[in-house]
Write a structure and sequence with these properties.
Elements (H helix, E strand, L loop, with lengths): L1 E18 L2 E21 L2 E29 L6 E26 L2
Length: 107
């Protein structure tokens, strides 16, 4: 038996990004909406296929040791590179579109 479903949720999410030589954490209010179909094989087993939209509003994240510039001196084998690093706050909206497929077991 095929059963359609729809859902929504509101909460608070944490973002944790590591990228090359920097990392940052941020948090923000979030919400999600979902829709899909579920097929019940047996009384305790169903499979589902669905779509979920997830959004975080105005995440402010501090990235530690972000390289903002570099200088090079010398030449050839004696070339020296000096990096200038600082902490940078970045604000952005984050969203994702997800297709989900899975099984549900009921006890």
């Amino acid at each position: 038996r095929v059963v359609p479903y729809i859902g929504a949720g509101v909460g608070y999410a944490i973002s944790d990004i590591t990228n090359f030589n920097t990392s940052g954490k941020g948090d923000a209010p979030a919400y999600q909406m979902m829709v899909g179909l579920s097929y019940k094989f047996e009384a305790n087993l169903s499979m589902y296929l669905g779509y979920k939209y997830f959004k975080m509003e105005k995440v402010t994240q501090t990235f530690k040791n972000r390289i903002i510039s570099f200088t090079q001196t010398g030449s050839g084998a004696s070339l020296t590179t000096t990096f200038t690093k600082t902490d940078i706050d970045e604000s952005y909206d984050y969203s994702s579109h997800n297709i989900e497929f899975g099984a549900r077991f009921f006890f």
